Automatic annotation (TrEMBL):
Protein known as: ParD-like antitoxin of type II toxin-antitoxin system
Superkingdom of the source species: Bacteria
Family matches, as Pfam families: ParD_like (PF11903)
Length: 73
């Protein structure tokens, strides 16, 4: 994956550093996370945040090969 340098407000970087530390992410990864969530929320304005969050978790579990088959009934 390629990277690009951009200028963003220092206040946002500071907040991302705090949140990233609390959630065991680097500052850039925290900003990427916020951007991903924001894009999903804008693309799906009727979905609640918790649903979007669970969709991101489910995708990560799938990519890690950690899904289990669900048996109905």
């Amino acid at each position: 994956m390629s990277t690009t340098s951009i200028r963003i407000d220092q206040e946002l970087v500071d907040k991302a550093a705090i949140m990233g530390k609390a959630l065991h992410r680097t500052t850039p990864k925290q900003i990427e996370h916020w951007a991903k969530v924001g894009a999903m929320m804008e693309d799906n304005p009727d979905l609640p945040y918790e649903f979007v969050k669970q969709a991101i978790i489910a995708k990560a579990e799938k990519e890690a090969g950690k899904l289990e088959a669900y048996n109905f009934g």
